[in-house]
Amino acid sequence: MRILLTGATGYIGKRLLPVLVEKGHEVICCVRDRKRFNPPESIKSKIQIIEMDLLDKASMLNIPHDIDGAYYLVHSMSSSKDYEQLEFESAHNFKEALNKTKVRHVVYLSGIINADSLSKHLSSRKNVEEELGKANFSLTTLRAGIIIGSGSASFEIIRDLVEKLPVMVTPKWLNTKCQPIGVADVINFLEKTLFNEKGYDKDFDIGGPDILSYKEMLLEFAKVRNLKRYIYIIPVMTPRLSSYWLYFVTSTSYNLAIALVNSMKIEVICRNNDWAKTLGIEPMSYKDSLIRAFSKIENNEILSSWKDAMSSGDFKMNISDFINVPSFGCFKDEREMVYDDYKTTIDKIWRIGGQNGWYYGNLLWKFRGFLDKLVGGVGLRRGRTSEIELNSGDAVDFWRVLYADKKEGRLLLFAEMKLPGEAWLEFRIKNDKLVQTATFRPVGLLGRLYWYVVYPFHGFIFNGMLKNIATSAT
Questions:
Q1: Taking the model in full, what pTM does it have?
Q2: Integer CA distances (angstroms), 441 to 12, 329, 420, 425, in order
Q3: How far is the C-alpha of 291 from the C-alpha of 298, rounded, in Å?
Q4: Does 117 have pLDDT greater than 70?
């Protein structure tokens, strides 16, 4: 079957793609920027890639007419304050475009929306479901609550809270009940639902066997990690304060923090598990989902992370728009050094950031990340998805990977921190030398003043970083 996969670069889409290929489907992957789409080499010959933006009707002409089924895995919750309108427009354009094709069945992954009073986030998901339901094709909606898996937003937020805070003074919504589900089970539901006529034009809640409060989820996480944690709930923390609390303590963006806090005040519990029985799926427990997630992390098998979505930072343009580093009107700091060993140097470059740090002045890098958080930036807490691999589009602390080619010996990063301008950091192997270049394109007088203020720090931070990367010594 020919399957259209929207959100192919997203957290769920990246994991669903190889499963669909394994099942023998020909998958048409919809991406806004093919330069940040890096599917495994083993499946490249079995997929088709089209560039498409659901808010651009002209680009949707790229959708093939002869598709049989489709997955709608698109959400805009963390990318804009106006995500509700953006999500509706995207759904409408998708519906109109697919009405002109031969598609028979579409599966939409939504959120559990059983409460009478819905948050803006869940209300938006419901509006999308209703709009898609007006189409000529059959629609099946799978409604999930908290998704637990290596790299998922929920998992990473819980991990940040538990591993960094021995004692937590928390808002009252931690008493809210929810029904988490493992990401492996979500992928199983999605794969088995497509073309199952028993689910046509219906919606189903999907969840694991455990109904827990957010407090219980945090404490169970601590138990799995062999950590002793104390949680005290106070009723005086307003939604805005709760959002700030979540934003500063975890790696989430502020827009996502607001949406999550508003949603966490509402119980998200499945109505029943009838669809799981129909499909022969027995979802794993919350504890087992955590153990599985950490197994993937320890073996460096994280297939996708919410942090790698462009909406996790301030990078709104296509990678192609930034991959050619400008020179006119820019400040540059270029340094080079003969490296000791090619392989060691490349490995160090590809491990930069995250838990491994920046090879010199890590306290200063962390302080810069803290300042970025204070002004609404992403800070350093995003880290990186893989400890050893980097691909275009990946997040590395407050940078975004624009280009990564080990054979060429070039890594290009673009800054997503709050700046009065635009900044690039490039590592390139030239002959027997490592060339490290920081480029800054200022905006106005403030941008120029910023460069001159931070320039003295470059002398020892960038020089120390270059030396530690180029030399074989750790």
A1: 0.75
A2: 35, 6, 9, 12
A3: 11
A4: no
